[in-house]
Design brief:
- This protein is mostly helical and 110 residues long.
- It has one domain.
- Helices cover 62% and strands 0% of the residues.
- It is built from 3 helices and no strands.
- Helix 1 runs antiparallel to helix 2.
- The two termini are 24 Å apart.
Length: 110
């Protein structure tokens, strides 16, 4: 991968890290415990519990993406950065940003 490409990718990674951190904060707020003293109906409480479960899944996924992005940032200067671990082909930048925790190209990820 060219150095100029790495600079652009690094900028994209930093922007995505910032967005992901904001998402995590939002998810953490949505996953706060539901206080039992709040007088809401049984159906409303069930809906709140369901929404909390969905937010927790989103939080876990956002944390996984953040971890992958931070890993990419640490390894961006390595000569094999952006190469598939299986076939050695270049991984498209958009794939690296969408699935930063995957060291494989689309073809090898199956």
């Amino acid at each position: 991968m060219r150095n100029t490409g790495k600079k652009e990718i690094k900028d994209l990674i930093l922007k995505k890290i910032e967005r992901t951190r904001r998402k995590i904060v939002s998810y953490e707020e949505m996953t706060a415990p539901i206080a039992p003293e709040n007088s809401i109906g049984r159906i409303s409480r069930m809906d709140a519990i369901n929404s909390k479960s969905v937010a927790e899944a989103g939080l876990r996924e956002a944390q996984k993406v953040l971890s992958g992005l931070e890993y990419m940032l640490i390894n961006i200067e390595k000569p094999d950065f952006g190469k598939c671990k299986k076939c050695g082909a270049d991984i498209p930048v958009q794939r690296m940003l969408l699935v930063p925790h995957s060291p494989y190209c689309v073809k090898c990820s199956d």
